[in-house]
Amino acid sequence: MDLKNSIIPLFLLLLSSILGSCQSQDSKHVGGSCEGCEAIFEYKNKILTPVDTLPGFQHHEPKLKVTGTVLKRDGKTPAQNVMVYIYHTNRQGVYETNGGETGWAKRHGIYRGWVKTGKDGKYTFYTFRPGAYPDGGEPEHIHITIKEPNKNEYYLDEYFFDDDVLLSSERRNAAENRGGSGIVHPIIESGILTVRRNIILGKNIPYYD
Which residues contact 194 (CB under 8 A, 6 or more apart)? Predict the structure, then answer.
């Protein structure tokens, strides 16, 4: 065997080893790849509690309460010390910034918040209903990322509003239902638009075990 013919098999073997190593590392990353999920750590010195009020809540309508319970994989037991991060557009469908933002705030904008669940697993955000993207290409939605103890951060299906005319049947059927369905049903409670969503850790999440 000449040098050229001996190098090619060695190169292919090395390439296969590298790809296999990458696949092994990816398989350990709960939820798979997640661009921007690290924004969940950008709360700085804020003390996280089960309730947070996002900027703009007092000044925008309709005001919105986003609430629910984070449950363990059995779908019954409340999960404690789970961080939940959300962000969304303004009423015009734009991720609004003030200028001078750093980190993921440059893309996620100013309407974002963080909570951490207590023993009862409950979480609540006070915000306002976001607008659809200006081009009408996306329904109104709220992005969500979670971080549970002893696992890396990962994203869930966005909150979508069941009464949104832009939420097509195709969009509904294409949902991955990560953490359970993200389609919420707005109702008025105590004078404020309210949506409830319970989150089941690990449900439909790749590489969770």
Answer: 64, 65, 67, 186, 187, 188
> Domain 35-200, what architecture?
Sandwich (2.60)
Q: What's the pLDDT tens digit per position in 75-97?
A: 999 999 999 999 999 999 999 99
Count of other CB atoms within 10 angstroms of residue 94: 13
Question: Sign of torsion, CA 116 149 107 88?
Answer: negative
Pairing relationship of beta strands 183-184 and 159-161 according to DSSP bridges? parallel
**What span, in angstroms and rounded, lies between the C-alpha atoms of 26 and 93?**
33
CA distance 85 to 122: 14
Beta bridge partners of 192: 189
For 15-33, what is each residue's pLDDT tens digit?
A: 444 444 444 444 469 999 9
